[in-house]
Structure formats: structure tokens, C-alpha cells
Design goal:
Radius of gyration: 22 Å
Largest sheet: none
Mean pLDDT: 79
Order of helices and strands: HHHHHHHHHHHHHHHHH
Strand content: under 5%
Shape: globular
Low-confidence stretches: 1-28, 216-225, 227-234
Number of strands: 0
Distance between the termini: 25 Å
Structural class: mainly alpha
């Protein structure tokens, strides 16, 4: 990049009060080239979480039934499936902030390596478990060791600037979607997840460069042209400094999106697998895995093509609000699809309804790229980026721990007591979606003003 495009690092006095998004970049029109190799490795490591957290979704309901955890009562499958799904995020919520703050002190790379190695072991344990206690214990260990997602978001923020942030963060949902596709289309998902984690560990160990700017790392990284060479003080920031509206509002919006998204993720396989007469579609695990995996592929391709242009044309806040509003028709299509299946069986109308739902879900998924950009820009200074992402991810993990149990339990309760014809769960989630869209209006109109 030419010197006329932006000031060089050597011309900038960087300290804890240096804004993450330089005001001098506001007038830039030409995007800074992304450091492709480093971002590719970050995205590769990002694949581990969706594989670890969501690869169990296509078969968890059948697994609960086959292990006779419910005592033969199929109506209780949703309760136990939701419990096992939620434990990953419950234990992640207890450790994610500390992992992120640790990465602010010792660097991003060591935390990534430790988390991925531990996760590979715990996923193997889950695959070998034959009891409810074994499933619960291994799931808890997987979540507790998986503090990497906040660290990876911090690295993405450090590898991008205001001119290419939309392009960089648009790639993160692609990695997530690819992870879902791998997890739902492979035999012995736990073994595959563990093997992939080991592969990611080795690639990170040998090829990923540290992004945390620190005095003792400056000389070692000075030859790496795609890594920032800023010098930052070593003292970590106080968590109390993050409890300000400019930080908490984006994090709260992230919590709203995460609640709705995890409820959707937990309901989809349950809805697909539940018999038609009980409010679902009666699909087998193979069909569920194929349908959810196909969404991952299409979602990844379209995110790459349309997210950055949409943000450039309509603005980040407008895109976020529109995409978040897609939750409303998505939840409305669940009862509509079941009604069609009850009346006519699984016909072309059912597949059309599912296609419309997944098309809307592609736009809905863009909310994560949007809100991650808001959160990255909300960090008070460069040194607080890890803590800010850790606090945001802790919030998301808490609501994601509650979400599966809440949504699957409401589904089971609605069916058992025939509330609103068994569809009460969708009315509640639609109401929550409306609130989330309203709350999104409190986000700043621009993310470039950061002091």
C-alpha cells in the first residue's frame, strides 16, 4: 500500500488510548489488502467451534432415544437434548472471559493452542460416552476448554482496519458454515472433530503469527509485513472500564442475536426429527444432516459475495436491523410448514417452505458479521480488544446455554399441553425477535468514531 493511502506505523505513537479505528482512515476509499495467509489460519481455527458445538445436532435426539435416557417417552427427548446442547455454552461462559484476558497478557497464539488441544481430547471422550453422565461430563469439558472464539475475533480485529473490516468479518460466518457442513456430513462426528482440532493445532503452531502488539514481540515480528508492528504497554485494562454504554449496547445486541440464533439451531433438528403429528416433519438423521449441511455451503458462498457490498451500500446498522428482522418470518414458517405436512404430507410445498426459511436464515446469519464489527469498534483502546471480545463472548455463551434448553423445553411443553395448537413456542420467539429489532435502534449509526 502506498504511503499516500495511510500513515505508516512508524509515524504513529501508539498507546492504550489509541483508537482501534483511526480517524484518519475515515476518508480512505481504497481498502487495505487483507493479510490472506494469517486470516486463512484464523478461519481454519474458527472451524473448530462449530464442529465441536454443533456437530452433535443432527443425531443428538436419536442418541438420547437410543440410550433410553427418557425411559421410552419420546416427548421428553427435547428436554434432555436441550440440556446436553446447552452445557457446552454454559461451561464456556464460565471461562471465556478469563481466556480472552489471558490472551491480552501472554498473546493470542498460546491460548489458541491450549484450547484446541484440550478440545480434541474432550471430543473423543464424547464420542466414546455411553451414559448420560459421560455425555454431560465430556460436553462440559469441551465448552470449558473452548475459549478460543473470543481470541479469534480479537485477532480478526487486529488483522483488519476500518477499510477492510467488512471483508474480513464477512469471512467468519463462512468458516462457521463450513464447520457445520463438515460436522453434519461426516461419519463418527466426534472423532472427526477431534482429528480436525489436532490438525488445526499443528497449523497454528507452525504458521500463525502473533497479532498482539507487545514490546517483547516487536523485534521478532518486525519482518512480518502482514502483522501490525504497533508497540503497546503491557499492563492489562480494567474490566470496569468496559462497563460503559458505548460497549454494553453492542454486547447486549450480540446477546439478543445469540439467544435467537441458538434457539433456532436447537429447534431446527428437533422440528425436523419430531413426528408430523407431534408438530415436526419426521425426517431421519441423514436428511437432517444433508439439509443443514446444504445450508452451510450456500450460506458460506453468498456471505462472501454479498455482505461487504450490502454494508458499503446501505450502511452497517441498516443491514444489521434488516437481517435481524428475518428471525420473525423464520419462526413463523415453522408452524406453517407443519400444518402443510399434516394436510398434504411431505410434498413440494413443504420443501418450498423450508427453502424460504433457509434463504431468510442466510440473511439472518449476516447479523453476526455486523455485530462483531460493532463490538470490535466499541473497544475503548487496542489493549482492551481481547477483554471486550471476551465479555461479549461470555454474554453470548450465557444466553446460548439458556437458549437450547429454553427453546426445546418450550417446544416439548407446547406439544404436551397443546398450547396454541402446539405452536406457542414460535409465538414467544417471534415476540422476542420484535424486541431485538427494536433494541438494535440503539446501536451507533457509524462505527468509525472511536476515541
Amino acid at each position: 500500500m502506498s504511503s499516500s493511502a495511510a500513515p505508516s506505523d512508524s509515524d504513529i505513537n501508539v498507546n492504550e488510548r489509541t483508537p482501534l479505528l483511526d480517524a484518519g482512515q475515515k476518508g480512505q476509499k481504497k481498502s487495505t489488502p487483507l493479510p490472506k495467509l494469517q486470516i486463512s489460519i484464523v478461519l481454519l481455527s474458527l472451524l473448530v467451534e462449530p464442529i465441536a458445538s454443533q456437530s452433535i445436532y443432527p443425531y443428538i435426539n436419536q442418541l438420547v432415544s437410543e440410550l433410553d435416557i427418557t425411559g421410552g417417552d419420546e416427548r421428553k427427548v427435547g428436554y434432555y437434548a436441550g440440556l446436553i446442547e446447552s452445557l457446552f455454552f454454559a461451561t464456556q461462559a464460565l471461562t471465556i472471559l478469563q481466556w480472552s484476558r489471558t490472551s491480552d497478557r501472554i498473546g493470542r497464539k498460546p491460548v489458541l493452542l491450549l484450547g484446541i488441544f484440550g478440545l480434541s481430547i474432550s471430543m473423543l471422550c464424547f464420542g466414546l460416552s455411553k451414559t448420560l453422565f459421560g455425555l454431560i461430563l465430556s460436553r462440559c469439558i469441551t465448552g470449558a476448554l473452548n475459549g478460543n472464539i473470543g481470541v479469534m475475533k480479537s485477532m480478526m480485529g487486529e488483522l483488519t482496519d476500518s477499510t477492510n473490516m467488512a471483508q474480513g468479518f464477512a469471512l467468519m460466518p463462512i468458516a462457521w458454515s463450513l464447520g457445520i457442513t463438515i460436522g453434519t456430513h461426516t461419519f463418527l462426528p466426534s472423532a472427526v472433530a477431534a482429528a480436525f482440532a489436532v490438525t488445526s493445532f499443528l497449523i497454528i503452531l507452525f504458521f500463525l503469527k502473533e497479532t498482539l502488539p507487545r514490546k517483547q514481540m516487536h523485534e521478532k515480528s518486525i519482518e512480518a509485513s502482514d502483522i501490525p508492528e504497533n508497540v503497546v504497554e503491557d499492563s492489562p485494562v480494567s474490566i470496569r472500564s468496559l462497563f460503559v454504554p458505548s460497549v454494553l449496547i453492542p454486547i447486549a445486541n450480540y446477546g439478543c442475536v445469540a439467544t435467537l440464533e441458538i434457539a433456532l439451531c436447537a429447534l431446527q433438528p428437533l422440528f425436523y426429527s419430531t413426528p408430523i403429528e407431534l408438530g415436526g416433519l419426521g425426517f431421519d438423521p441423514v436428511t437432517i444432516g444433508f439439509w443443514m449441511g446444504a445450508f452451510g455451503i450456500v450460506n458460506g458462498v453468498l456471505q462472501t459475495m454479498i455482505f461487504a457490498p450490502l454494508v458499503n451500500k446501505f450502511g452497517l446498522k441498516a443491514v444489521f436491523q434488516f437481517c435481524e428482522a428475518c428471525f420473525i418470518p423464520i419462526f413463523a414458517l415453522f408452524p406453517i410448514t407443519n400444518i402443510i405436512a399434516r394436510q398434504y404430507g411431505i410434498n413440494w410445498l413443504v420443501w418450498l417452505s423450508l427453502t424460504c426459511s433457509l434463504t431468510l436464515a442466510i440473511f439472518m446469519d449476516m447479523t453476526f458479521s455486523c455485530i462483531l464489527m460493532f463490538i470490535t469498534a466499541a473497544a475503548p483502546d487496542k489493549r482492551s480488544l481481547g477483554a471486550t471480545n471476551g465479555l461479549a463472548q461470555m454474554t453470548a455463551s450465557i444466553v446460548r446455554a439458556i437458549g437450547p434448553v429454553m427453546s426445546t423445553s418450550m417446544f416439548a411443553y407446547s406439544v404436551q399441553h397443546n398450547l396454541m395448537g402446539g405452536y406457542a413456542v414460535y409465538a414467544i420467539l417471534m415476540t422476542m425477535s420484535v424486541f431485538a429489532v427494536w433494541f438494535a435502534a440503539k446501536l451507533p449509526g457509524s462505527i468509525e468514531k472511536r476515541a
